[in-house]
Amino acid sequence: MAKISNLALVHPDAKLADSVVVDAFVYIDRNVEIGENCHIHSHASVLAGARIGKNNEIFESAIIAAKPQDFRWKGEDSYVVIGDNNKIREQVIINRSIHAGGETRIGSNSFIMAQTHIGHDSVIGDYCVLGNSVKIAGDVKIGNYSILSSHALVHERCEIGDWVLIKGGCRVNGNVPPFVVMAHNPIAYFGVNAFILKKGNKSDAVIDDIAKCYRHVYQNSASVFNALRRIHEDIEPSPERKAITDFIEGHGMKLAALPQVDME
Predict the structure, then answer these.
(1) Is 23 a catalytic residue?
(2) Which residues pair with 175 in a beta bridge?
(3) What is the pLDDT of residues 151-180, one digit of tens each?
């Protein structure tokens, strides 16, 4: 049976696994499911529509499945779906979807630091780190193994690829392709995320090819169309090259840090 403090308030319809720990002054609403070995710390709120996997730790005053901050939401039932093995620190707010049956989704094995806000219908991948006071608007997608340093801000409908590092305080106002570091305001390409890629067992040859791809995109004053053509001509095929070109072809008209992004 779940270990629930006498000072917590848990709705009788909430479904908690037997190994869940709920501390004093926690509020757990109706239509909530919490998996095995989760720990909900004091003063946290888990509201209607939360679906929380296994081995998650939710710290003091966090709010999971908060009502969305969007005028388009008219009270529809929707969800926040959280995977396994995440740490969600103090005063984090995660809004649920604005669409009936829709989801805001957090993957697994991520670390979400204090006072971060994740807006409606956003998708956070696996093994991500969101620093203190990161602000993520609605309909944002963040890829696996990406790091957003403290006070980064991501505008609505932006996508950040896998293995990206966003430096602290950056305002992301466009799509960020995989494997890069972005810094400054206005946001600018700062190089390849080599240190983290090496931690992920990417070889020096692979990292060098990634850097060559981005020299064509960001450092040769070419149009996006010509940069893609040169990448295909100059760099041997690889999963990393494909990830870069697929992302740019899909998002090039709104690629962050490019003043000229015409595809023609």
Answers:
(1) no
(2) 255
(3) 999 999 999 999 999 999 999 999 999 999
